[in-house]
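User: Quick sanity check before I run a bigger batch. Here is a single chain. Can you write out its predicted 3D structure?
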Amino acid sequence: MVTDFLREHWYIAARSRDLRDRPVARTIFGENLAIFRDAAGKPAALLDRCAHRNMALSLGAVRDGCLECPYHGWRYDAAGECRHVPSLGPEAKLPRVSIRSFPAREHDGFVWLWMGAGEPRGEPFRFPHRADAGWTTFTMQTRFPAAVEPCLENFLDCPHTVFVHRGWFRSPDTRALTAVVRRGAGTVAGEFKGEPISASIVSRLLFPKGRELRHTDRFLLPNISRVDYDFGPERHFIITSQCTPVTATETEVQTVISFTFGRLGPLVRLFFEPLSRRIIRQDVDILRAQSRQFEKFGEPKFAHVETDLLGLHIASLRRGEERTEEREITIRF
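Assistant: Done. Predicted structure follows.
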């Protein structure tokens, strides 16, 4: 069940490059939307249903900055107001009908929509260092066959990487280390102290030798995960994922990876990006298998241990529960 609390936030609906001369169809929280650019080139979003005969507006065209229905040509502006009915003629009085519109913003190469009933509060999230000098960035779009919370927990869960990404991202290491979990307003983070560099393809290709690693996993309301592997200003990797709920069992994830690697950054991207895509596909496969288990056995029942560092906090924060907390936990990968 989707709460009003979760709707009252910004969500990525499309990439900027997806919006060209024609509208695009998107689904968020099960709501079917038609997204287009108005006469000024700004993004706009309407419920994907013409008020006349319920036709999908996303199948139509953009005319003079309005969205034109493909069935009878009714046109709607960015606010959802009907502006033209061809069959009535140019001087006729228009019907007083409108379609629900959704506030839209565009930055960082994405179109964001406010899905709540009220006026937007604040501006959409900004991806860290996405366009900063000295940083190299690439973006991946992935459809996950899972709800938002299993996706977020997966992105911020270290123990699974030994099994799902064995040899690619992390290998088994029985040495104990300390994770400090800090929870505050709208966020929870796990910082790992004294983490050894695990033997893996990622560490051999990307991690510098002899440098101390500062590894932090962080969740930010309502749907964002951020993972930092920080070796200092000359070698820092940030993996940020924004989860948009399509339905109760599907999530569209935009992952932005920004990193510093000196002048070699663009060259490193040539192998780092396909490597990242392979690792993400492994997460897609394991979450698909988990979702099939939910289908077989009904409402999931979980057992929890303290090394499930952030999962319970994510669920709690997404229910709107606020508290401040700090704990140290011993964990092994």
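Residues 157 and 308 are 7 Å apart (CA to CA).

User: Great, the batch can go ahead then.
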